[in-house]
Write a structure and sequence with these properties.
This is L-lactate dehydrogenase complex protein LldE. The chain folds into two domains: 2-112; 125-240, Rossmann fold, CATH 3.40.50. The chain has 13 helices and eight strands. It has helices at 9-14, 16-28, 44-48, 56-66, 77-86, 92-99, 105-112, 132-136, 153-158, 182-185, 187-203, 214-226, 236-240, and strands at 2-5, 32-34, 71-74, 102-104, 125-128, 165-166, 208-211, 232-235. It has a four-stranded parallel β-sheet, sandwiched between helices. Strands 6-5-7-8 form a four-stranded parallel β-sheet. Helix 11 packs across helix 12 (214-226). The two termini are 24 Å apart.
């Protein structure tokens, strides 16, 4: 299985350890992982701000870099969702193939690799943050407002990690307030929402907050640092890859 590793630009610049953990984890699980070095932004910031037409160059480059792989895998639900819904180009046939073979990491591990066990250990108290786009658009977890059997692809994987103690916040699927450009245009509301999330995890005395999107975790990390909290953030890939 030949996998193209799609790493969001902010992860590449600020959290390269997440990219490395993702690559190592996929390789441990038997994938041939290729990182196209010329990949750039997927174009989501432009689309979020109402300027999707400005992302044409991003689309063309994305297709050039990721054509020909069996799957494209990314440790970020928001970027995957953008590609699934907005990747279009003059080469529409190739764009369509990529839109249908790009996967968020936990989605890929659960639905494609069908991982049953992991050789990972993380002996700490951990709270999971569920990102809105992954839950409500990619269907990575159930929604509390719908009367359906609960499920979570992230939790199912985390439960396979030795030594981990998972503690759920009361409002398990509440938004952290990041929302991409929302945190810039509505910073006061964004911060208040993030503080609410942090308070619930702190009340559970967790040592780490994890999730599938470093964008949300980056937002929470900023609040935690300003509060001089001892709680750390860590991407789910880093836990699943931990020894």
């Amino acid at each position: 299985m030949r996998v193209g590793l799609f790493i969001p630009c902010y992860v590449d610049q600020f959290y390269p350890q997440v990219a490395i953990a993702t690559m190592e984890l996929l390789e441990k699980l038997g994938c041939e992982v290729v990182y196209p070095a010329a990949q750039t932004c997927c174009g989501q910031p432009m689309a979020n701000s109402g300027f999707e037409s400005y992302a044409a160059g991003c689309n063309a480059n994305f297709i050039k870099q990721f054509r020909g792989f069996d799957y494209v895998v990314c440790p970020s639900g928001s970027c995957v969702l953008h590609v699934k819904e907005h990747l279009h180009d003059a080469d529409e046939s190739t764009a369509s193939v990529i839109r249908n073979t790009v996967y968020e990491l936990t989605e890929f591990l659960t639905d494609i690799l069908k991982v049953e066990q992991l050789n990972a250990s993380f002996p700490f108290k951990v709270g999971l943050h569920v990102s809105c786009h992954g839950q409500r658009m990619l269907h990575l977890a159930s929604m509390s407002e719908r009367m359906l059997p609960p499920f979570s692809k992230a939790l199912s994987l985390l439960h396979k990690v030795a030594g981990i103690e998972l503690i759920d916040p009361v409002r398990a699927d509440e938004c952290c307030g990041f929302g991409g450009t929302f945190c810039v245009t509505e910073e006061a509301v964004s911060v208040a929402m993030g503080q609410s999330r942090v308070e619930e995890h702190a009340a559970n005395d967790v040592e780490y907050i994890t999730g599938g999107d470093m964008s949300c975790l980056m937002h929470l990390e900023g609040i935690l640092k300003r509060q001089r909290s001892n709680i750390k953030v860590i991407h789910l890939a880093q836990i699943l890859n931990a020894q």
